[in-house]
Amino acid sequence: MDSLPTKLTDVTTYVDNLWEDDIVGVLSSYVAIKCLSPDFDPAWADNGEIGRAARLLSEWAASRPIPGCTLEVFERDAMTPVVIADVPATPGAAAETVTLLYGHFDKQPAPGSWREGLDPFVAVREGDRLYGRGVADDGYSIFAAIGALEALAATGTPHGRCVVLIEASEESGSPHLGPYLEEVAARIGGPGPGLVVCLDSGCATYDRLWTTTTLRGNLIVTLQVEVLSHGVHSGLAGGVVPSSFRLLRQLLSRIEDEATGEVHVPECQAEPPERVVAAAEAMAAELGEAALGQFPTVPSLELSGRTTAERLLRRSWMPSLALIGIDGVPSVRDGGNVLRPSTTVKLSLRLPPPVDPDRAAEAVVRALSVDPPQGARVEANATSAAPGFVAPAPAEWLARVTDEASQGLFGRRPGAMGEGGTIPFLAELASRFPNAQFLVTGVLGPDANAHGANEMLDLKMARSLTAAVAHVIASAP
After folding, report:
1. pTM
2. DSSP 3-state helix, strand, coil percentages of the chain (rounded to 5)?
3. pLDDT digits (tens, 9 = 90+) for 38-51
4. Where are the domains of the chain?
């Protein structure tokens, strides 16, 4: 490692100490803040939790010994705040490339039961694992970005100018990010950033540096089926008034095959290119079933897809539908013999990376809305349509330095993978700055459980990723 141009050994030692002595404690305080994304806390401004998290993280970042760093919290009317740090190039460093580092600090809610001894809003450390809502998605990101820059400063390693952008609406599809991107673009000037480092993605394993090559788009649709103005005794209406749930099932069958999970809507389809298929096959050949990670399935459950490679493609490139919320249905405990007046569901439709989400939204809403079954009142609305992302081929220098970082820190060549999630920011930035290079990476690996119960940050991976980011920053031309 001593031969690496960014003094990776010294940087790694500094990063390890910084995480252990400082970051873990502040990150644990962040876990306690219920800074839910606006979609899950419409009264976020009044509740103040997002503002509280912004203050905690910005105050920590402002306290770091990084020469010339300016830090501001921007908060426009009715928009969640962003934290922006601007770090100048060191004297004598090549400054042609400005690096933009991205993350977010808003959180998903905490549904389901966490295992005994864990609480979503109480940080619990077990060895090199830190549990709590938001630790891995994506609270760690500001610590990795600022920590990398601090390590470079502490070791006297030169680097170009860096701008850190940490937002608070990503889990709602980044609806508030656009105006802040204008602010960042104005600050950077010229052709914009030459390198974008996104710290909100995943990793298949914790034994190397992983880069994300593609991300799926995401379409959120609400669908309501109404049959009555109020509930009626099921003994009187059952068999005469159609069940709103049964009619909803019929509508869902228009867009998804209930037996196979295949999405019917042509506007939601795209064939994966040969290079994507080859990459999935290579990953499956090397890692086997571990390439998919572990799912807490019941023992008898059969996964879709015949092979690991096919399952990787289904997750990263094929459309898929999930029912993620439902209204109008009482709990089992409270349910009485009533034919309910309506059923409303929230649907999440993942889209192949190149699919136009607006075109897909129009097609899905049309399929659900036309010719309502049995004359029921049907209302379908697309509330969010986020595009997918296909990373440009890495430049020679970026391929080289990611390889150096992975081999120096992990002893293994880096891995590349397609992800099934969505980061709307990336598609917008790629469109705005078509000549930028992208390093999309993250810590969401085995057992990380982002969005689910028992969310976990692998601290060893977080430390290594911070050092890897430092190496890439220092090597940007």
Report:
1. 0.90
2. 40, 25, 40
3. 999 999 999 999 99
4. 8-215+388-475, 217-269+319-386
